[in-house]
Design goal:
InterPro entries: Cro/C1-type_HTH (IPR001387), Lambda_DNA-bd_dom_sf (IPR010982). It comes from Xanthobacter agilis. This is HTH-type transcriptional regulator/antitoxin HipB. The chain has five helices and no strands. α2 crosses α3. The longest helix has 20 residues. By secondary structure, it is an all-alpha fold. The chain has one domain: lambda repressor-like DNA-binding domains (434 Repressor (Amino-terminal Domain), Orthogonal Bundle).
Length: 78
């Protein structure tokens, strides 16, 4: 879910509503809402499309998610 939260945060930072994003993607607002609520998974191609449309670097986001996962894994071992 952290990936989804980052996407939501990036969309908001860009000053976009769900409707704005949906229109830019050529999709319905309900699709964006489903992604953001965790009710619909996204694949890599959709993730890259979201990054381009919202205006964030997908590599940075993947690094952030990876760092969070690494920290969680380390905490479980202790």
């Amino acid at each position: 879910m952290r990936l989804v939260q980052i996407i939501v945060d990036k969309r908001r930072e860009a000053g976009m509503s769900q409707s704005d994003l949906a229109e830019a993607l050529g999709r319905y607002q309900s699709v964006v809402a489903a992604i953001e609520s965790g009710g619909r998974r996204i694949d890599v191609i959709e993730f890259l499309e979201l990054a381009e449309t919202i205006g964030f670097d997908p590599h940075d986001v993947i690094r952030e998610v990876s760092a969070i996962a690494t920290k969680r894994k380390a905490k479980r071992k202790t």
